[in-house]
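LOG
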Amino acid sequence: MKFGFGQPLKRKEDAALVRGAGRFVADVAPEATLHAVVVRSPHAHARFAVHDVARVRAMKGVRLVLTHADIADLGPLPTPGVIPGPDIKIPHYPILAKDVVRHVGDSVAFVVADTLAAAKDAADALTIDWQPLPHVIGALEALSPGAPQVWPDRSNLSFETDMGDAQATRDAFAKAARIVETTIVNQRLVTNYMETRAVVAEYDGERYTLTLTSQGPHIMRDIIGVEVMKLRPEQMRVVTPADVGGGFGTKLFPYREYALAAVAAGRLKKPVKWVGERIEHFLSDSHGRDNISTARLALDDKGRFLGLELDIVADMGAYLSCYAPYIPWLGMGMATGVYDIPAAYVRLRAVYTNTVPVDAYRGAGRPEASYLIERAVDAAAREIGVAPDVLRRRNFVKPKAMPYKTPTGKVYDSGDFAGTLARAQQLADWDGFAKRAAQSKRAGRIRGIGIATYVEACGANGPETATLNLDRDGGVTLLIGSQASGQGHATSYAQIVADRLGLPPDLVRTVQGDTDRIATGAGTGGSSSIPVGGVSVDRASKTLGEKLKQLAADALEASAGDMEIAEGTVRVAGTDRLISFADLAAHPAATPEKLRAAEEFGTDAPTFPNGTHIAEVEIDPDTGTTAIKRYVVVDDFGATLNPLLLEGQVHGGAVQGIGQALMEDTVYDKASGQLLSASFMDYAMPRALDAPDFVFETRNVPCKTNPLGVKGAGEAGAIGSCPAVMNAIIDALDRAYGIRSIDMPATPHKVWSAIQAATRKVSAA
């Protein structure tokens, strides 16, 4: 099929974007729109009181000033992402802080004015009495005796839970020939999508309409409308434009500004618009990662893994964001990675600190798990004197063991982990590395090569319903509750429809992001758009095709069993008798029901994409600068819907991981609680020059639990990249200086400092 499954179709969405004709929330400007700003805390922890509110409300152009007292009837932001096991006491997450703030950037007031400038002036004019309180930065510091409490009625330990078999793991360690311990930091990240969050709120006297950036409007309506504002679902419509400039998980959940804008629009009976500035993204949008973890790996005398013990401390920030508890718990489930480890035990402690809340960010727990186990395996290989690829092969879960149940309860349905590693090594010219390392040494540089073999669990968010309608022009309109934020849903879904109905992509129109037009939707997250949404689209396309065959059979006075679909027509097989889709849509017997099909798909069984990343780096010892010289990815995604879109997703995810490995870092000053890296002047982001020339292939093994055979792909690049790059850097440092540990980000200064320290140590000896 020219446009169907497996074809490298170029994105339909790009034509408007490259012409500057995209439409984002900031472009939405209803008549008489008012503008809003949020007043945020400059303190990490403080009591406060707002004075002279009446004076500010009387300023020219000011329409409304909201403080906590004005919205006391609103519910808090909820935390639906609870996990089985611990009884988590969810702290109150107010839409505006009442009298205590708990992180720099905490929301204190909401100001609405005729212009943005007037709103900012009014916000600056508010008199706020601040009384700083003791604060704590860093999860380990928060757990130390005598640490300041983020919440007065509870300790800084938000919750503790475990997974696996503690006794079996102790028994495995008791008979181990070697035990290797590795402690790593998975630093906090700011998610930094291109389009900052924004909302335009309107109220017509009966219902609210919110136009906002999101990864799914139904979640926003159900939380902001129903839970926070205590409305009935039909009293709020949420719209997300077709163009969303990135999400990475952070736009999947609701934020305070959406409720505040809605309240303001309701009281003023005028549209209210808030567009977040980049510094607000740093100070108020949920952050990602931020774990400190220790892995203990038990091996027998032949280098086979016997047991794994993990101790994970996860920083939650000041509040529990929407899915916050769920994120490290997801990572716990993937603790053993691609390895056949008979016994495992994982302990997780989640901790409050006076920082921005942490929540899902591309991969959501699985990158943390992959980074930890892959660093641990490399450390074990060095300790016992075995090559890292050899140790991995020795301990991989074998294809013949599938389905394979891990010690944490995951069931891998398919995969050939050794196969992706072998192909990646071939593409990376693994055997030629020694020659290249020698060339680097002659040039005064050091060279290293690193492997990451990963597996993740994803592709089970849902259920999702796809609705297809045949239009008068012979095309179809697809309505679905997932939400694109750059992935190319309009293209990929059109390819699935093309397979069933034989239509070119231009005649498939995808509608997302409107709770009025689309009854339900799980949104986009967990790499589920194709494994779940794609299945529902495929089934709806098949159902619509059968309906059209029956309609055409009646029109052509033939049997439905003799009909076939081809190129936008239905014809009697083996004849030239046919009727076009457009004529079918206009046929007198064509009721709306006969031209419509809706199918739902949901599953509790995740898919398990997996693969191998190999990074080769060269380091300048005089500056500590790391350059990625080669980068190879071989992935198993079950089946490839569109190789162009797939490769783009892998490239993007890998660059995000490279950014974390080499440069990104969220830095708080422990003394003041201030976020020191609160702008692009202080927070380094990967640029085009930082991205290597990727070599990418798939080595797919069809998924046995997904009807399309696909495995989720959107997060995979970010999962394999961090450990591959860091293992390569440590390989180079170990070969040259005996340095076997360094934490992300491996900035030039950090690498240079490690080299200097190692050199001084050798000189002193």
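LOG (cont.) second protein
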Amino acid sequence: MKKLTSLLAVILFAANSGFAGEPSLKFMISFPKEQSTQALDGRMLLLLSTNDEKEPRFQIVDGPETQLAFGIDVDGLQPGEKALFDAAVFGYPLRSLAELKPGEYWVQGLLHIYETFHRADGHTVKLPMDRGEGQHWNRAPGNLYSTPQKVRIDPRENTPIRITLDQKIPPIAPPKDTKYIKHIKMKSEMLSKFWGRPMYLGAVVLLPEGFDAHREARYPLVINHGHFPYTFGGFRTTPPDPDLEPDYSKRFNIHGYNRIAQEHAYQFYKEWTGPDFPRMVIIKIQHANPYYDDSYAVNSENLGPYGDAITYELLPFIEKKFRCLGESWARFLYGGSTGGWEALAVQVLYPDDYNGCFAACPDPIDFRAYTIVNIYQHKNAYYLDSAFKRTPRPGHRNYLGEVTSTLQEMNYRELVLGTHSRSGQQWDIWEAVYSPVGDDGYPKRIWDKKTGEIDHNVAAYWRENYDLGYILRRDWKTLGPRLKGKIHIYCGDMDNYYLNNAVYLVEDFLKNTGNPFYDGEVDYGDRAEHCWNGDHTRPNATSRLRYHQMYVDKILKRMELSAPSGADLTSWRY
């Protein structure tokens, strides 16, 4: 027995010491008291790259050019305490450090800091509050990170590689107001009550030419939904910078695309201030939150009553401050991608508060085509249902159909960046908005993030509350009369994320509506990729730079057709 005990001790020592033949590579990441004297919660990330063109934290993407990331949750990590990364830690795109090949890597650590929220629903959760950057973990002010170091790595090496988070991302300077662009912020009582702390809504306001001179004018309000805006992009009061170094757009295969963007921004300014352009107020809403760079502009069990807060708190505040007409017939919605879904969702869920939506390349508007997953019928999101095959579902393509990432890969990247739907990325925010709250206070998963197995009980909740195609079909008897003439949808038929699939399903219903007929528009761009907005006269690379001008004529016609008797259709037409 003594010999057997001794042999067991030797085996255990060998296993723990790396002598058992298993990879033993380890990283230890810590932060000093100079960065924080308090214990911190968050997501600790280990980032590795073979490319030194930029820091590893800016190279974790869905496409084939991605570098490596590994992540763990830390709770109450003390200054000087080590966060351990070994072969058991989940990674992307390599699943484990054990798969790492020997070689030289640029190594970086980053701590995405979480805040504790005591919500009104009784749940306490730890989440990364937005700090003015629009929920980007790699540039969120206050996050700690290390200076990248070039390290020779051998997965068989036993000596841990130590990383010290010696840098802190600085605050972001607030944008400056100009003659035409104003930035406003207001405390939301609804959201503050839900989150148990002060919460704010903001907006970037583009004022019409002559706003100060025409004090008698009252203006229509146009809401441009989309991702978090630092300021009003695509509006430039000066000609393009002649010294601007041309860049290259890989997406559009265009050299000097940055200059093209400046040219279109300057052209918009000239049109906006020209004599024939209708005088309106356009706003971009700032509603970044602990889960994403915007809230999807609807009420949610996990995010709170953002739909009500925007419609009933923020918009009246803006309309009063900037002399808007303040009536539903003079409110319009437009946007692309996330903003496209928001424009349609807000119009459908608040049918009497807005007079029309223009939804371009919207996120999935029918969950029978949640990109290419039918969440009600399919069993697995990552692979085709099959007894013998394991065919992965694609996640991103180009106009030729060439696939650059799968649904599994995209979701694995998110899982590395954050558990409990906390990655701040696309699939997680859909889950956070649409799902009911789980027992732990975080969103219930629509599918297992590792296996892809779909939870059809969660899918049923999504259908009843956020599947816009289903809601339209279910409630058309009451919704139809209130939405007549208000729905306009545009999508490229080669959308990179397969978003056109859901548009087809909604169109099939809309074009067969009766009593009343929907009397709107659904249009497709031939071979057009993501962000197509209905412009058949320009390539997608430039039409996407003209969202603000695209729908003006349609809005004017809608107001002239639907404005109530005695409505002000003239004071703002100077």
